[in-house]
Amino acid sequence: MNQKNVRVRFAPSPTGPLHIGGVRTALYNYLFARKNNGTFILRIEDTDQTRFVAGAEKYILDAFRWCGISFDEGVEKGGKYGPYRQSERKEIYKDYARKLVENGRAYYAFDTAEELTSLRRRYEADKNTFVYNAFERKRLNNSLVLDEEETQRRLNSGVPYVIRFKMPEDELIRMEDIIRGDVVVNSRVLDDKILFKSDGMPTYHLANVVDDHLMEITHVIRGEEWLPSMPLHVLLYEAFGWKAPEFAHLPLLLKPDGKGKLSKRDGDKMGFPVFPLEWTDPKTGEKSRGYKEDGYFPEAFVNMLALLGWNPGDDRELFSLDELTKEFSLDRVGKSGARFDPEKAKWFNHQYMLKKSNHELATLFLPVLNEKGIMADIDFVEQVVGLVKDRAYFVRDLWLQSDFFFVAPDTFDPKAVKKRWKAESYDQIMELKELLAGLTDFSSENIESVVKQWINEKGYGMGMVMNAFRLVIVGALKGPHLFDIVALIGQEETLRRLEIGLHELGRKE
RNA sequence: GGUCCGUUCGUCUAGCCAGGUCAGGACGCCAGGUUUUCAUCCUGGUAACACGGGUUCAAAUCCCGUACGGACUACCA
Length: 509
Fold this sequence. Notes:
- There is one protein chain.
- This protein is mostly helical.
- Helices cover 44% and strands 10% of the residues.
- Among the domains are: 88-250, Glutamyl-tRNA Synthetase, Domain 3 (Glutamyl-tRNA Synthetase, domain 3, Alpha-Beta Complex), CATH 3.90.800; 356-403, Helicase, Ruva Protein, domain 3 (Orthogonal Bundle); 408-509, Arc Repressor Mutant, subunit A (Orthogonal Bundle).
- The chain contains 19 helices and 14 strands.
- The strands form 6 sheets. The chain has a 3-stranded parallel sheet with strand order 1-2-3.
- The termini are far apart.
- The structure holds one RNA strand.
């Protein structure tokens, strides 16, 4: 069926940490590649030397490792289409840019950045916009107006120059986007984009087209912010005489307040992380939260992200990466931007919490306990986790739900005391203590039947006794099945807590 | 300003391409139930086709316009 081996790439710029929008783009590329038995490539687009940020590339690699997204080719991994870092492919681009000059589709321009800036300012003052296009280029400083000799002289003299694409004056560009369908733009409204910068580096436009062609990319799946560049890219393929890949422009991830696309700078101010991993800015030292550090499971993070813009067409919402791989299709990617809901993200994490085995959860919980100075046996922790995991959203919540398993309460919730420690409570708990002291079978089931029988025989109020009992054991009116708690902490500890409780709470008149 | 893209419950969305269902699900929220407590859980409820025209027996669905939102408009990606 597949005429050609699918090859897709994710091509981030190492200018800082990758935010969740970028992760989602990569995820969709990954899923598309896997679904079609294709190849997924990681290419680093570091053609802007001024924006290079130390550690960013490593961050990107680490983030994908955490997510479980793997590459077949690329930086770190290698492959026969390398190198995969554009700065290491520098030499390639100039020749291609020159080819376009030779075939008349591009030209040299000698205007300085300062000249252009002041030109723009002048236009702006007259409420106009300066555009370096077919109408303006005739009166600017480039090889289209200079004669060949002068152009050659300047080139040889070493003055800075750029290479610009010669945008057709008036041509209808018809394009097809997998997600959006037909898109038509007139070249008249486009400008002569710089392809090759005066610093010897290509711009994104040139580099991405050349590399996608050289790396035999079949599908370009990227964010919607690139949609306005699609005509230029399509024209570039045509100018080179190359077959263009198919394009799919993904809807944007929006800020939760509904204003604009999510950006790196939104940081923590929204109250949730925008990055997969924590990031410390190497210049300012400023820290940004990450999903990992906030306690999200990578499976939950990926699942949540996948559903932001894609859906399986039915009611299912929980998908492992493998399941997503089987189900994913670009046909089912929506067109409109998605704002994501931190509440739903929590819910996803809770779902994965429930799926985890007690052993796995206990292993994750143990370090949290150690931090609190608690050394507990893994078997014991597993049992505790089994009792409380359905009330937790994150591993760290486990502590709040289970602290009383590890340490006896040192205070008793005053509101609960007022409500549940009544005049008869002291004597009843005293009696209960004697009862429990006499038990040889301290299993949850046995304690429950013995205690309930005793309550019934004495004609005590079930709620009266049980709430007082819970108050003394837990310190508050919370927690799982009380008989499970006492069975787990054991007879000795239970009696000790009853003793302490009686002493602390005393007889109420 | 210009170009392009978009618009179904508060949020994520199904339904649209191949017009005909009380417009479905999930999160949240509210209520009830289960429970000795809290939470979970279960049941129920709340709530949407941006607006205006047109085509048609029939429009969320097709067409046009308007409004609103967004992206882009660098020798950044």
